[in-house]
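User: structure tokens for this one?
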Amino acid sequence: MAPKTVHTLFNLPLSFLTPRLFVQNMPRRGIKSISTPRRNRFNESPNLPVLESSTAAALERKRFTTPLRTGALGTKKGMTAMYEPETGRRFPCTVVQMDRVQVVAHKTLRRNGYFAVQVGSGWKHPSNVTRPLLGHYAESQVSPKRHLVEFKVQDESGLLDIGRIIGASWFQEGQYVDARANSRGMGFAGGMKRHGFSGQPASHGVSLTHRAMGSAGQSQGGGSRVYPGKKMAGRMGGHQVTTQNVKVVKVDEEKGLVVLQGEHLFSPAIAPLVDQCIAGSIPGPDGCLVKLSDAVKKPWPNVPVNLLQAQSSADTVGSTL
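Assistant:
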């Protein structure tokens, strides 16, 4: 029978052999360094440049191209034609109708990191809306909307009151806007239709591959792989397209219509010699959602930023008349 071992204080192992017994005396380790940072005399000058990787610096860089006021939503109804009163030329244009466009919510710099206005349009039956979204609409005291889109603005002055209705008079005749919409989807398309490839020769050794794409990459020199972003056959269309500098030629507040006309594609000297010198179309099929906002490549329109200012100015004009 083996003798019993009596454990006393003197026959315990050393502390480095039992580290778990002394965990409470060890410093807690983590991601943050436990050592005091060294003093850097080059980082204490008052003339140091402002860091350009912060959120405030990013907003300042985008300030020049951020509109002063919110945009609006519309539905593309189709195309028509109008005549220039000076020259009598006929030009194509696109009709966009605004349906119950209303401000739903705000995004502020303190809470979200940027300023934006959430705009909804149309109407949707409450039974087809989720409960969280119904609560969002109920908090703003607006009806459920078919579409919900955000428009960024420069500062707090561009935030409209929640529940305000934006009509067709939000845009003025003669100003320029940027139109965004999802382009018409054309399904799976080959390389010739999708990217404009010339295709293979019609004869001289080519058999049944006249419209084929051809090689997709090299064998050994490029790593025996297909480079990312290679132009190949695939799904064509169905993505957001922006048409810039679209001119507003007519506004009908009663029917909520905004008539848009594109810019001249040629110089004024060549325009009289070309039949279709004006592009009045905007992306998307008839019935699609169109996002309209002030053009970023044109001077900002001389209109009130806030609807309250617009209403007060209209009341002032009405009282003077």
